[in-house]
Amino acid sequence: MDTILTSKRGQYVLLLGAGFVTRPTAVELDKLGVNITVACRTLESAQKLAEGLSHATPMSLDVNDLEALEKEIEKNDLVISLIPYTFHATVIKAAIKMKKHVVTTSYVSDEMRALNQDCINAGITCFNEIGLDPGIDHLYAVKTISEVHEAGGKITGFLSYCGGLPAPENSDNPLGYKFSWSPRGVLLAARNTGVYYEDGKKKTTPGSELMSTAKPYRIYPGYAFEAYPNRDSTPFRERYNIPEAQLLIRGTLRYQGAPAFIQKLTDLGFLSTDEIDILKKTSTEPPTWAEAFAKILGASSHSEADLVLAVAGKTSFKDEEERNQIIAGLRWIGVFSSTERIEPRSTPLDVLCASLEKKMQYEKGERDIVMLQHKFFIEWADGKKETRTSTLVEYGEPEGSGGYSAMAKLVGVPCAVAVKMVLDGEIKDRGVLAPVTPELSEPIRVKLKEQYGIELTEKSEL
Fold it and tell me: Which residues belong to any copy of the Saccharopine dehydrogenase NADP binding domain (predicted)?
């Protein structure tokens, strides 16, 4: 299995998924002459993804059909799983059976990690966490940490924040955000508990309060960001080999004011996944937003005055300005409307998502931005202290131009690079892997920089 997977028949890859990042992965592999079977649940999605590619064949495939999945994997050298992470273990098990390599951009879950020995026994590489976050973030964290350790220094603190956002001039709504896909995942992430190290102690922020802890975070003066912890950062002390770190937070960037607005949506019950009868689909006409909002809030009536009173009873505002901003934001969503009807989806979260999907899409000509910054607090053997930053700012191509969004490029291209390296035998390690060691991360980092111009700018402040 260590030989380069190239013969007269070429290299063959099965690409699972129809998400927005799959196109750059497919295009870059196609340019390199890799034969790709693009497999989606619907043939139409696969055909769209394969359009204009010289070495791509579209097909319909349901990953729940194990026999069909195994049959397709068997025909290929490697399978790329860009479907929801809950399906990865199923794909990896099928790949183990067929002795074929796997690449994903997702975090290694416990279920995936449990398959490590089976992958080793099958002689296959299962390479994960190679998109943007996780992915590019690992490459530059490992680079600086390794350099500092080799020079005898310590990493006493590490902050890493990443945000995929509309470009500032296109952030024209109360959330300062737009969606390339369903908003459900983004809103659910706002409910995750944040766990991190501060002053050497493990700190926890419950998901119900997470957005209220967001603080202004300065990267460049021209951007007004707020940052908050993202899930559990604590395993990265071990994963990045920085047991000395007293401060360790990996988190999310949003535009100023957005976290406060999402916190209010949480307080008002909008992120609830509990079913409410009035929000369910029936044979009768759906309720107006005002009627539905009254039920979600438990308001005495659905007049705007009573709804505003009920809002004040469910949440608090730091001042009159914030109150006015939040009420204006709710009005923008349409929740006070006595004419606009909801799209029935059973739960407050899903009804809200239905509305946001329509109001917060990227319009033609609009573009996105990705901002990623690591901040390293370094202590040298002689007692001197230094702060280093590694920063990436990437703007996407305008919507409708045929180019990549920044997010799609920065997830899809690293994935394609890792796939080619596995196929070419440049990544030889077997098992369930992620690029969190210099041996695995550095060759990918160099390729992305030299061949695609994807790199972080490093600066030092003594």
Answer: 13-126
Residues 6+ apart with CB under 8 A from 155: 145, 148, 149, 242, 244, 245, 376, 377, 378
Question: Nearest Cα to 80, choosing from 412, 406, 434, 403?
Answer: 412
Rounded-to-integer distance, Cα 35 and Cα 112, Å: 27
- Taking residue 48's Cβ as centre, other Cβ atoms within 10 Å add up to 14
Strand-pair category, 247-255 with 154-166: parallel
Q: In sequence order, what are the residues at sequence separation of 6 or more whose Cβ sits closer than 8 angstroms to the Cβ of residue 280?
A: 344, 346
What one-letter code names the amino acid at 412? G
Structure tokens at 23: 């196109």
Cα–Cα distance, 152 to 105 (Å, whole number)? 33
Q: 3-state DSSP call for residue 123?
A: coil
Q: What is the 3-class SS of 133-158, one letter each residue?
A: CCEHHHHHHHHHHHHHHHCCCEEEEE
Query: CB of 103 within 8 A of CB of 127?
Result: yes
Q: CB of 432 within 8 A of CB of 119?
A: yes
> What structural domains does the chain harbor?
12-127 (3.40.50.720), 136-257+363-402+454-461 (3.30.360.10), 275-346 (1.10.1870.10)
The pLDDT profile of the chain, 462 residues, written as one tens digit per residue, is: 443 444 446 999 999 998 788 999 999 999 999 999 999 999 999 999 999 999 999 999 999 999 999 999 999 999 999 998 889 999 999 999 999 999 999 999 999 999 999 999 999 999 999 999 999 999 999 999 999 999 999 999 999 999 999 999 999 999 999 987 778 888 888 889 999 999 999 999 999 999 999 999 999 999 999 999 999 999 999 999 999 999 999 999 999 999 999 999 999 999 999 999 999 998 899 999 999 999 999 998 999 999 999 999 999 999 999 999 999 999 999 999 999 999 999 999 999 999 998 899 999 999 999 999 999 999 999 999 999 999 999 999 999 998 999 999 999 999 999 999 999 999 999 999 999 999 999 999 999 999 999 999 999 987
Q: Contact at 8 Å (CB) between 407 and 396?
A: yes
Please state, in angstroms and as integers, the Cα–Cα distance from residue 231 to each residue in 195, 204, 292, 358, 428, following that order.
Answer: 6, 10, 31, 28, 31
User: In terms of DSSP bridges, do strands 125-127 and 215-217 run parallel, antiparallel, or are they unpaired?
Assistant: unpaired
* Mode of pairing for the β-strands spanning 56-60 and 35-40: parallel
State how far the Cα of 92 lies from the Cα of 336, in Å rounded to an integer. Answer: 48
CA angle 300-322-211, nearest 5°? 90
- The Cα–Cα gap between 93 and 450 comes to 35
Quote the DSSP letter at residue 318.
S
Cβ within 8 Å of residue 114, ≥6 positions away: none
Token duo for residue 419 = 């796939």
Catalogue the active-site residues: 133
CB distance 426 to 439 below 8 Å: no
